[in-house]
Write a structure and sequence with these properties.
The protein is mostly helical. Helix content is 79%, strand content 0%. Helix 1 packs across helix 2.
Length: 107
């Protein structure tokens, strides 16, 4: 069950990110290239951890840029920042469903 939850969560994340990075119209080749950069539940542990760390860094950078842009435009961003932490907790729960990743990723 936990593996299926991880696989489904990663698939949702992959679809969202591909659309966000490339727009709604994307070639099959571009979709494959983007998908290969996102961790898969079937990746070996070391590869999964490496892809996930790189992915999280990219997401953090993108969130920071958007939050800073909103803040510079006069929007109150304190609430936005406080909503990001629960997403990190959900991700940790997903990773925890793969015991082989705990030592590699959750240190």
């Amino acid at each position: 069950k936990k593996f299926l939850d991880l696989d489904a969560g990663l698939a949702d994340m992959r679809n969202y990110i591909i659309k966000d990075l490339s727009g709604s119209a994307v070639s099959e080749q571009e979709a494959k290239r983007l998908a290969d950069q996102i961790p898969s539940a079937y990746d070996p542990p070391e590869k999964f951890a490496s892809k996930m760390k790189q992915f999280l860094n990219s997401v953090d950078e993108k969130i920071d840029k958007r939050v800073n842009l909103l803040g510079a435009s006069g929007y109150r961003v304190d609430e936005v920042k406080s909503q990001i932490d629960p997403l990190d907790d959900q991700l940790i729960n997903l990773i925890s469903s793969r015991p082989d990743l705990k030592d590699l990723f959750l240190k």
